[in-house]
Amino acid sequence: MPRMALAATLLTLLAAGPAPPEGSEARIEAGKLVILHPWSRATAAAGAPAVGYLSITNTGAAPERLLGADCAIAGMTMLHTTTRDGAVARMRAVDSLPIPPGGTLTLAPGGSHLMLMDTTQALAPGGRFACTLRFATQGPVAVEFAVQPAGAGPKAPM
Ligand SMILES: [Cu+2]
Q: Which of 25, 80, 99, 116 falls 20 to 30 Å from 41 in CA-CA distance?
């Protein structure tokens, strides 16, 4: 593919955002928030870190913030962002992520994500697990993550 065409394709993909895998079509509405497609990836064993991905759109006129999540299957759930240092991707814990009025926060492989530590069970494809998202204004919102195969979604480790 010519270099220009490849660049245009990449820009199109970035603009559209990564598509969630099949089988994670949930839609949750809570106040002014619309939460789509909570999904995760299978893990090999209890104790292995697990991920949580979803998108959150703020349809309101006031800013919102995602403060984190509590998941029964994890000893601790963190908010991570991924930054690139050349070819090296580094994860960093953050206290919260903003969702501006009319904006969408997307947690996806290669970007921001929920990181579940000290998991109590292996996650099998086709399974589900519950978490409570915590928002600065909306408060707690219960969601259920659909577990996809380990390599599902965009090609990024986490
Ligand atoms: Cu992480």
A: 99
Domains of the chain: which residue ranges? 22-148
* Rounded average pLDDT over 59-83: 97
Give residue 157 CA to ligand 1 midpoint distance, Å.
Answer: 9
How many Å apart are CA 31 and CA 123, to the nearest integer?
30
Q: What pLDDT sits at residue 12? A: 43
Amino acid sitting at position 113: H
Q: What superfamily would CATH give domain 22-148?
A: PCu(A)C copper chaperone (2.60.40.1890)
Q: Could you tell me the distance, in angstroms and rounded to a whole number, from the CA of residue 8 to the centre of ligand 1? A: 29
With beta carbons less than 8 A apart as the criterion, state whether 78 and 117 touch. Answer: yes
Looking at residue 19, what is its pLDDT?
53
104 Cα–ligand 1 center, Å: 20
